[in-house]
Amino acid sequence: MTYRYRVFGLCMETTHRFRFPLSAAPATAECDLTFHCELKRAWPTPSRQNALYLSPSRNRFEEPDLEIYAVAGGNLMRFPRVAEFLVAPGRIDCRLQDGEAGFMVDLYLLGDVLSYYLEMTGISALHAGAVAHKGRAMLFAADRTGGKSTLVTYLVAAGFHLLADDIAALEPDDAWVTCRHAFPQLKLTPEQARRFVGTSEGFEPVHPSFPKLSVPAERVGHVSRESLPVARIYLLERRVVTGGDTAIRLEPLGPGEALIQLVRHSFLAEVLEGCGYATGQDGTAQADIARTRFHRLAAIARSVVVKRLCYPSGYHYLPAVHRAVLADLGEAQGVERQQAS
């Protein structure tokens, strides 16, 4: 059976049955990408001396967790002993090595692989959640302790519409920067699921070894499936309350500092820095992904208002953060552009 999904603004056609919730693509939509996956022997592996990227992290066999090579027919993303993905314009093929690890296909494809595909096709993938309000998108980027998932889920429960839970796909043009709809999933801990959904029962774990659950976003609130202009990018800094300081602070960043932070919060920042110019085995020149990505992020930093959002840790402070975001958005009529500094 063939399925058609809308993911990161792309119409993807596949026979793969996903565990995670995805948005169905209209029957009339033109297919942008095909995805094929089968349990099959791995592709021939080039010498690691010719790798575009070798991750510093290692699996239990002391192999890189991720390897990327330029090969005939595209770029090969290897997750050794688990799965391999051949990424080419309009097509991604997967060969699953470990039949017991089929659940990893969703994780890899909807994370590293599609983020890499987006960057290759001129779309920036940021490690950020995104919500929609009155026809505009707001992004929330954070480190692991920044509270991104909690704040995004709270805002969806409070009436904002979900665009992306973890990866925000941004596309700049001459008029504005747009954010594409990712897929209608929220990754929540059991405690978060109980708080925002009322139960943690009945949801599949994102990974058997991780505590987070795959929760359909419609169980929390509404989902936006449009590509929307970006009004704000917020860099979250959540802090423990000390000395009675519960203030919420919004600090605008100039384009230079904004660019530094966008580079830092790229979903595949380390990978893309390592994937510079290379030539494939067929002699075809590969694009300098790192350089084109930098110029694209610079255009985003010039076009979108980027602010640092500092706020106190604790669920009971989230309504105040919600009000601060609404007040900040109220200052803009439409979509503002970043001011030079």
In short:
This protein has 341 residues and is of the alpha+beta class. It has helices spanning 103-120, 148-157, 190-196, 255-264, 269-274, 289-303, 318-330, and strands at residues 3-7, 10-14, 23-24, 33-39, 53-54, 67-71, 74-79, 83-88, 91-96, 124-133, 136-141, 161-164, 167-172, 177-180, 185-188, 204-205, 213-216, 222-223, 228-239, 249-252, 305-312.
Estimated structural class: alpha+beta
Share in β-strands: 25-35%
Helix content: 10-25%
* Largest sheet strand order: 3-1-2-4-9-8-7-6-5
Verbal overview:
This protein has about 350 residues and is an alpha+beta fold. It has helices at about 105-120, 150-155, 190-195, 255-265, 270-275, 290-305, 320-330, and strands at about 5, 10-15, 25, 35-40, 55, 65-70, 75-80, 85-90, 90-95, 125-135, 135-140, 160-165, 165-170, 175-180, 185-190, 205, 215, 220-225, 230-240, 250, 305-310. It has a nine-stranded mixed beta sheet with strand order 3-1-2-4-9-8-7-6-5. Strands 10-11-19-14-13 form a five-stranded mixed beta barrel. The longest helix has 18 residues, at about 105-120. The protein is globular. It starts with a strand and ends in an 11-residue tail after the last helix. The model is unreliable at about 275-285 (pLDDT under 50).
How would the blueprint of this fold be written?
Blueprint: E1 3-7, E2 10-14, E3 23-24, E4 33-39, E5 53-54, E6 67-71, E7 74-79, E8 83-88, E9 91-96, H1 103-120, E10 124-133, E11 136-141, H2 148-157, E12 161-164, E13 167-172, E14 177-180, E15 185-188, H3 190-196, E16 204-205, E17 213-216, E18 222-223, E19 228-239, E20 249-252, H4 255-264, H5 269-274, H6 289-303, E21 305-312, H7 318-330
Parallel strand pairs: 2-4, 4-9, 11-19, 12-18, 19-21
Antiparallel strand pairs: 1-2, 1-3, 5-6, 6-7, 7-8, 8-9, 10-11, 10-12, 10-13, 13-14, 14-19, 15-17, 16-17, 20-21
